[in-house]
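User: Design a sequence. Structure:
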């Protein structure tokens, strides 16, 4: 009934099962787990006013308290229910588009339905860029509200740190701005606080001049892994960090074979700069794609590493930078593989990304966010476990094995006094305690903002997807 009423409220914007536009939206998520859900209808608003109309219609009538709403940006979070829903209503923001640069201030206003590909493409026509996602097909909204890392993080902190203003639809349906002068508490909460406070319809970020970059991927024989980890550690702990460099390293299991990988980037066209030379010198190499290219070119390369609609998942943890521990984590990963290596089409990647003292210092300089981090927390390692498999019948087996691996990594870190509280929201699996990693002070502040701007708890009860404040487990182990 709610879907029919919304169709009358927003003619031509509400689509039902069987409609090609419903099918196109429902089947276009990053992961199969979201594609397999079937909402009662899909709404595709084109303006913040239409988003407001939806929120008012559902949220201000007590008789609709039973309605469940999913809100989709780019649809890249892979687990079922993050941005889609069974039988409820999905509001797909992909028609809310636009990238405009204020010529006087250099601020780019980016609509919440955009993906980084179009943002970079539009800005490149003016020789500009913003600190945004590293994967072109990822949506702006989810990455930014989760914190996000960019190719420029050494100089600009987390992606969320670079937002100078949000346009937000609150639970009341009111459309407000949040920035350093207006609704400052909401502004801070939105910097990493996920979808707990409202529907963001626009992100304003400063642009900067950007031309050709240098970098790419290098694939190595698995025998180089100890040297790869040492190079990673030296880069992350450098006393003279290169603020123009960005590094990820990984080991990946695919088709019964382990391969080492480094993804290295420099925001200038300088070939093999000194900070990245340890990675380019490492041998034996199987293949490399090192080149001068645009920001969009490198983001497209990252996009090509995955296939939309696959049975793919993310899991995460973090620990203090430590070469011995990183070597042990690989052994734990190999042990976990033994339990699932017979799964058809299995790919399991172990990816390390550094969060340096420099990144955290830049983050702090740009103002407070909600991540609960300080420069003294660095350097630490964000760990991504990215699984891919083919058959639905293997879902539970793969998830269980990776869960066990995460637990074993955490236990190993704790044993060595290398534990880190923080977990990278953008890589979290649905049952991981992600927001808890922000710390008690940040959680208390976020709860206060939620009570102030969403007193009825609309975004906790009616919008179940994402990591919810109402589900945070406190220090006594009880749910709020």
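Assistant: Done.
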């Amino acid at each position: 009934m709610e879907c029919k009423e919304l169709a009358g409220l927003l003619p031509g914007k509400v689509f039902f099962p069987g409609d090609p536009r419903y099918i196109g939206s429902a089947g276009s998520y990053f992961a199969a787990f979201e594609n397999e859900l079937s909402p009662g209808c899909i709404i595709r608003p084109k303006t913040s006013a239409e988003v407001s109309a939806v929120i008012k219609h559902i949220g201000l009538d007590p008789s609709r308290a039973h309605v469940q709403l999913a809100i989709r940006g780019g649809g890249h979070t892979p687990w079922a229910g993050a941005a889609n829903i069974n039988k409820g209503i999905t509001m797909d923001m992909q028609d809310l588009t636009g990238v405009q640069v204020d010529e006087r201030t250099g601020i780019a206003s980016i609509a919440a339905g955009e993906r980084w590909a179009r943002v970079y493409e539009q800005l490149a026509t003016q020789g500009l860029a913003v600190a945004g996602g590293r994967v072109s097909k990822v949506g702006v909204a989810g990455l930014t509200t989760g914190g996000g890392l960019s190719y420029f993080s050494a100089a600009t902190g987390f992606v969320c740190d670079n937002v100078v203003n949000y346009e937000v639809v609150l639970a009341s349906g009111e459309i407000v701005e949040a920035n350093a002068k207006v609704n400052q508490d909401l502004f801070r909460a939105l910097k990493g606080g996920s979808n707990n406070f409202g529907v963001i319809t626009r992100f304003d970020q400063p642009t900067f001049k950007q031309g050709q970059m240098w970098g790419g991927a290098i694939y190595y024989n698995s025998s180089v892994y100890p040297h790869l980890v040492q190079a990673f550690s030296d880069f992350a702990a450098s006393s003279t960090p290169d603020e123009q460099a960005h590094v990820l390293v990984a080991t990946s299991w695919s088709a019964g074979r382990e391969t080492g990988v480094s993804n290295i980037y420099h925001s200038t066209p300088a070939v093999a700069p000194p900070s990245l030379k340890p990675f380019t010198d490492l041998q034996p190499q199987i293949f490399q794609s090192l080149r001068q290219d645009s920001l969009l070119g490198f983001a497209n390369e990252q996009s090509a590493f995955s296939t939309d609609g696959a049975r793919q998942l993310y899991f995460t943890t973090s620990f203090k930078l430590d070469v011995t521990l990183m070597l042990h984590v690989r052994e734990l990963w190999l042990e976990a593989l033994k339990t699932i290596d017979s799964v058809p089409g299995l790919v399991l990647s172990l990816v390390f990304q550094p969060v340096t003292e420099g990144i955290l210092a830049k983050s702090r300089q740009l103002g407070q966010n909600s991540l609960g981090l300080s420069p003294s927390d660095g350097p630490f390692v964000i760990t991504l476990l990215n699984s891919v498999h083919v058959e639905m019948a293997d879902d539970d087996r793969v998830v269980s094995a990776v869960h066990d691996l995460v637990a074993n990594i955490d236990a190993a870190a704790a044993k060595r006094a290398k534990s880190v509280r923080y977990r990278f929201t953008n890589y979290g699996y649905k049952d991981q305690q992600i927001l808890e990693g922000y710390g008690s002070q940040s959680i208390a502040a976020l709860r206060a903002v939620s009570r102030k701007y969403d007193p009825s708890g609309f975004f906790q009860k009616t919008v179940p997807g994402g990591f919810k404040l109402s589900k945070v487990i406190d220090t006594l182990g009880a749910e709020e």
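The longest strand covers residues 245-254. The chain is about 30% helix and 20% strand.
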